[in-house]
Amino acid sequence: MGQWTSAVGSPQLARLLGSQHARAATTPGGRRVPAYRSLADGVRLLVLEGRVPVAARLPAERELAAALAVSRTTVAAAYEALRGEGFLESRRGAGSWTSVPAGKPLPTRGLDPLPPETAASVIDLGCAALPAPEPWLTRAFQGALEELPPYAHTHGDFPAGLPVLREAIADRYTARGIPTMPEQIMVTTGAMGAVAAICRLIAGHGERVAVESPSYANVLQLMRETGARLVPVAMADALAGWDLPAWRQVLRDAAPRMAYVVADFHNPTGALAPEEQRRRLVEAARSAGTVLVADETMSELCLDPGIERPRPVCAFDPAGSAVITVGSVSKSFWAGLRIGWVRAAPDVIRSLVAARAYADLGTPVLEQLAVTWLLTTEGWDESADLRRAQARENRDALVAAVRRHLPDWEFAVPHGGLTLWTRTGGLSGSRIAEAGERLGVRVPSGPRFGVDGAFEGYVRLPFTVAGPVAEEAAVRLAAATRLVATGATAEAETPRSYVA
Ligand SMILES: Cc1ncc(COP(=O)(O)O)c(C=O)c1O
Hints:
With 500 residues, the protein is of the alpha/beta class.
């Protein structure tokens, strides 16, 4: 497969630069900021925020100068400054590509579990998952135990999932208006098990996979580890869903084997892709020959009444040959069950079942029976209501606490999901996360959700705490932020302000 790098045309770069917050035209000392500096800062910020991918080819100096109506010298000086700061690499005659400064560690791995001695005192905002909505977990297992005896006489291996659960999941899609047969469902070990099986089947070593930028950190890491080559596509601003022109360009130019998207209350931004975007993305993926994987893990977590819910992405490919849907009970019910699923065409399901055999063979029977009980009783809807109420309360408490204690942090409050994606007032999210860990609050920093070091100026906060705990988390984060702003971090490192 040939090397593919994304390219940012001069009209697109001009548009992205124009959409940035107006930057101060003078320094704090009252001197004018030179035009080249302001351009270099703008490009640097676009890279750090993932709006322009790392390793993207930038326009030639002359072209960009014309698009921005500045002199070529200004663009040349800006490129020179970016090269000096490690944000650009150029090869004579070949062009210039965005980069991130060498030596900056890319924190791509997940968060390690907290050691037991600190777990009690640290507010852990690392994981976007809530405790079980009792009494429904207990009831579901009581129901499951009653159904267990006939299974005890079997070998217990069901690589595609228990027939009763496949049917119950299929029926839910049918009830949502997308007729589905049990043969179109495979039960997996969480959504992660589903994506792992899909990657093993479709997006192995060296295959290109287009991903939203930012995207769900663990899936990005899973794909890196399976050897896929990630092609990031920036999300639209302000929770508006996808940037369709950017998607069309990537699907056309990079022809990725697969694309992975979270249309419903995206993790980490919380964006909800409108229905028309869904239709168009499916069309674009189909004509590019790209398999579109739509992860619906967050889809039940609509937190505000009156929000119009678009149809699922698979509504635009009900047969499931172009769109593979991933679902899970982890967010709508409880992550401890480790139950997820795939919805696709029966032949795709058969291949996935074969692909998963070499990973985990199947999913525990009792947990599958518990989910079957939930889906076939009032348990699913009632527990999901509890879940939404809890997440809503947590979201509102967190938003209020962050606004009170961190007035420089900027975010758009999502209508659903479990996460707040926030800009950290121009300071490094990684440094704040480091300082926070020492001050008793753990948050994942932005680059975990990006490709190649983007999103340094962000952290992700989950809707998992409320009341005084949310307040205290914000107080500790504010203290961490002050440490970073004053340069008093452990390594006594000069804080890096990423916003001009
Ligand atoms: C979009 C998305 N997909 C998948 C997962 C993981 O799901 P599971 O626990 O079912 O493996 C999460 C969890 O945060 C998620 O947000």
